[in-house]
Amino acid sequence: MAPGEPIVKDSPFFAALDCFVQKAEFRAVNEASLARIMEIGGLPGRKHEMFTFVRIRPHIDTPFQPKFGVDSLSCNTVRRLVYHGCEKSFLVIGDGVFYPGLSDISAVREELTVRPLIDAMTEVGQRLRDAAAATNDITAAMNGAFCSGGLAIGVKAGTKLSAPLQIIVYSTSANERLNATFPAVTLDLGEGAKAVVIVKTAGEAGAYLSNALFDLRLGVAATLDWAFIQSDDAAAIHLANIRMTAQKYARFSGVTACKGSRMTRQHHECRLQGEGAELSLSGVTILEKKEEAHHYVRVHHEAPRCQSRQHFKNILSDNGHSSVDSCVTVHPDAQLTDSNQLVNNLMLSPDATADNKPWLSIYADDVKCTHGATIGKIDEDQIFYLKSRGIPEERARALLTTSFAQSVIAAIPQVDAALDARDMLIGKLEAKGFGVN
Amino acid sequence: MLEINRLRAGYGEAEILKGISLTVKPGEIHGIMGPNGHGKSTMSKILIGHPAYAVTGGGVTFNGKNLLEMPPEKRALEGMFLAYQYPVEIPGVNNAEFLRMAYNEKRKHEKLEPVDPLDFDELLNAKMKFLGMDSRFKERAVNEGFSGGEKKKNEILQMALLEPKVAILDEIDSGLDIDALKVVAEGVNKLAGPGNSLMIITHYPRILQYIKPHHVHVLIRGKIVRSGGMDLAEELETTGYDSYLKEK
Ligand SMILES: Nc1ncnc2c1ncn2[C@@H]1O[C@H](COP(=O)(O)OP(=O)(O)O)[C@@H](O)[C@H]1O
Ligand SMILES: [Mg+2]
Questions:
Q1: Which pTM was predicted?
Q2: Domains in chain B, number
């Protein structure tokens, strides 16, 4: 690990700690995280291997105000964010705190357990603490250092959720300061359990810092269809850590759709721990102006006969900057690993930047691993083919651009969430004159 | 309908077409024959406005208008159509949606309302059935992973939907087995009529047994070296192109 710059006592980070009102239930996690921040050498500089493509420091070492709970959040605001099909199966986190009163899980009440994280710390505190003590990611450690709320969700063995569960993570913005929120969500699927879970992050217009952690555990033969719709305000800083462990024959299928923002970064750390576990993770990002969106992905094959598939697609215009730094590690016992990683970038502007680093670290011999990345423009032969059928140039370009994103959007496991992602992403293209209709 | 007048064209420095003249009248079927590499595909792509080629001399009029000045999409809307020798694959674009989009562009050009999607689906089903195309080709991406024959059928399907005035079919028989060829030829013949014209490009005379041309031309080294009727095609079937290639 490249050394970072030590956090100096008068840094904005420490100023935030000074005014941080710790909750007793979270003390152990907060302290383990802070100790870890000191241990890993403070705030990462540009040479830090985890932030090769991301200038993260200005977004962390900036004056911010840890915030727990919203001053006001109306039912109407929440309603607008709830997907059709989730009206009776959604949970609301507002500025880092779970609001049962704003949530409705009547459709699935018998099928899962939902508790405010603060009430579940006796059960999940240790694992959050262990993870905090081991993380190399400053953003995860930061979540742990300030974490004071969130959700603990459990789906019992053999249970299939009869409706998709939506988790809304909402942030508010203030003029005079940068609101910062640090919720954590634990989700445990028992043996053979099945669930569709959609996270939607959103917030008020303006700047805020949203740093959420998701700790997902899939028991034997559990199935999780997961989608993450990042629709924060363009001025927001969006940081997310998604940890996933899968036991034997468990299947995780995740899609992350990112609108991007001033700084968007997601870190997926996935561990296939039981034989035959499967992971599929795809991402779609559309950026414009000076927006950024970065994916840092670590997939660990720790058991034999596991399969992982990754596919990230980025469409970049103006000065957009994306990166995908994705490593598949095949541990010594993980024979017959089957993995692939693919990153496709569509560049609409010469000033945009797409950094790609799909790579492998293999310690077993009988494995099938592939990886690749492409950076391209719209194919002119395809444009001509469409034009020669009477389709005007602009529509041909729009069609090819939107369809580039569409294959990942179509993988979102819930209809209305897929439509939302489509509107959110394709809407940006349409506003730039790439409209098909 | 289409008048090609001493057309010269090529790629950058290389001149491929060296003065082609050809008049295609409404209702006529022309067979353009010649060995591989002599400029048949180049000619067809120039006629639909492919940007890779530069016209260096001569001209083309289409219904009295200067064809070479029209952008490709305009040519298509005015009724020029090429069934490509090598149709491009367009991953991610649904075939049926693409077909409907093209169909609606044509309707728009004719100042008609967009087609009702259900009506279009019916129309599409009927055309596909006639061409012996499985309906799953509606849901596939345009040409992606299609076999050679399936791509050719998809080209003819587009022709059947767009009903062009001048359709150029470039090696439409390659990749088709004899049964598929008969189906495709039947489809093409059905579209032929007094108001529209066909140019059948082929290096292999077989297809002209099924789509009978009124005129046959031999294109060698970028020039039409001989023109005739159906008898010329029959002659080429037995003699091949050797005698033309020897001539300088
Ligand atoms: N993209 C290209 N760039 C340069 N030359 C080309 C290209 N495509 C074809 N040619 C050349 O143009 C000539 C005519 O090709 P083409 O029109 O495809 O012949 P045909 O269709 O009669 O087989 C050939 O010599 C071929 O090599
Ligand atoms: Mg050819």
A1: 0.85
A2: 1
